[in-house]
Amino acid sequence: MQHIGIIGAGLSGLATAKTFLRAGYRVTIIEKAAAIGGVWEKSRSYHGVATQTTRDEYAFSDFPMPKDYPLWPSGEQVQLYLHAYAEHFGVLPNIRFNTAVSWLRREDHAWLADVTDLPSGQTDTLTFDFVAVCTGTFSTPSIPDFPGADTFKGKILHSSQVAGPDILKNKRVAVVGFAKSATDVATLAADNATECHLLFRKAQWKVPRYFGNLINMRYLLFSRFSEAFFNAPRKTAFQKFLHSAGKPMVWMQWRGLELLLKKQFNLKACNMLPSHKIEDQISCSLGVAPVGFYEKVKSGAIRAQQTKIARIDGDTIHLANGSTIQADLLVCGTGFRQTLHFLDEQDRKHIIGEKGHFRLFRNIVHPNVPNLGFVGYNSSLFTTLTSEVAAHWLLRYAQGSLRLPAPEQIRDDMAYMDNWRKTGRPIAGEFSGTCVAPFNFMHLDQLMRDMGLRTTATRWIPYEFFKPINPKDYRILLGDSPKEIPRSRTAVRPADAIA
């Protein structure tokens, strides 16, 4: 197995390329944009976007972010960091930019990819022994089909298209949604537009960068201890205790956190008090509150309404609550759709269920689709790290050196996780089931054990249990990449064996 195809040059694609290159493989990365970065690439980033996690958590294990970066780096800084990473590890020469994959199919134990050079329109077919799909869960912007949208006199944009404040200036702006991008854009519009409206169906919990203006969020959200308070699909001994005899402690933990957020953000005064429990929401969609967002809502700079758009008529937006607003610009912070439009239909049916949920073992492979893997479809609260570890897992999978369960156990595990997402924790189905948060450590530990590696950097259990995640630990745990495979060797196709 010599030629590895990687689709996407975002952070997951770069980590995967670096991992396979260091193991001696020939790698070709196909990227439809003109630059690396994926969701952080400038043409896809809205103005003012920044990381949700801190500089040290949002970094690869062997390539820390510059110390002069702020604690929450901007999108532009993340883009520069990813470019430096790709340059440092020799990934850049292997990327074909401005190239799109139209069809990926299997023939004679190989993968054929029909690709198109976007500037020239020239087509080509590439042959790979193994393919890693790294297009991520934020590849296709989702804009609702509003009744009467064709009559709108202004512009309808996705939040990722808000490239700068000039787009908002002297405009009556309406923003739809309550996720990170929607509240970020609304906060920006409040300072630049003539009017700013925020329309949302359901108020969601948001967290501050500093709880109580004192404690960095990582200490309350990014440790094994904090993860134990969630009702996991598979529990450790401590988790079994917490969710049985220790239930009162779990209840007090979450109600105390809600009380803190209600007070810190003044949620009642903003009329944005969520109706659901915070523990039922925390996942990849957990948003960090933009600085000044709730203050702007309370002051009226952001005119927020819990409703939805009924129809559009010219520059008038009719709302389901019976009121109307006038707008020149409608911005949809309504997320992304996860699709595999380029994958052959037969294989796509194995991987994506009827309701659009991905069915992947460890969120990486499907036993019926050989020599194909996914990196970045295990989104977490620190995706750089979970993608990096997944890339190492996929390398060993391609080499046939993982400690995997028997084929029937793999299928049972996939069925169990699919059912748990539907019945045990419905929020786990968001992003088409590609989010592993808040069970970040559980997922990482599974991958590390499959690789026969330790799960903690030290033997001091109390320290490992309470300290926040530290990607640098995994530089020690992952060690050196596997040695180069001789070119003459025919690698085992583990997926064929599983199937």
Automatic annotation (TrEMBL):
Which InterPro entries does this chain map to?
FAD/NAD-bd_sf, Flavin_mOase, Flavin_mOase-like, FMO-like
**Which keywords fit this entry according to its UniProt record?**
FAD, Flavoprotein, NADP, Oxidoreductase
Keyword Flavoprotein carried by entry: yes
Q: What SUPFAM superfamilies does its record include?
A: FAD/NAD(P)-binding domain
UniProt-listed PANTHER family: DIMETHYLANILINE MONOOXYGENASE
Q: Which family does this protein fall into?
A: Belongs to the FMO family.
Put simply, this protein is called NAD(P)-binding domain-containing protein
